[in-house]
Amino acid sequence: QVQLVESGGGLVQAGGSLRLSCVASGRTFSSYAMGWFRQAPGKEREFVAAITKSGITTYYANSVKGRFTISRDNAKNTVYLQMNGLKPEDTAVYYCASDRNPHPIATTNYFSRTFSYDYWGQGTQVTVSS
Q: Using CA atoms, how far apart are residues 19 and 117, in angstroms rounded to an integer?
């Protein structure tokens, strides 16, 4: 049984920072790319960032590029999302997800699709006040 557990969300003022963590268990973490998505009330779940299984290549939504950084520690089965320069529009529940394919065609388009992932965490709330 694959489990993904996020942590690190909270309330922060605009311009502040948060670091989200996602610990995975149940399969070989280093064999799969990982992604972060977010969902605001009344909106669809949207792609934020993804990282290949080696951690060498990263992908970002245009809305977070330059402010957010995704990273992973395969020894700790953990993927991180460092969020700097937070804006009120970043307010959402943030989810980590595990790629369903150990050998994907690695493109931003691929990683931005929710269908590319087969396991999801329960989410962590991030609220940015103005």
A: 22
Structure tokens at 87: 């804006």
| Residue 52 near residue 74, CB atoms below 8 Å | no
Residue 72 makes CB contacts below 8 A (sequence gap 6+) with 34, 51, 55, 78, 79, 80
Which pLDDT does position 75 carry in this prediction? 97
Confirm if 19 and 13 have CB atoms less than 8 A apart. no
Distance separating alpha carbons of residues 39 and 30, to the nearest angstrom: 26
> Which among 13, 49, 54 is positioned nearest to 30, based on CA atoms?
54
How large is the average pLDDT for residues 4-8? 98
Per-residue pLDDT tens digits for 96-106: 999 999 998 88
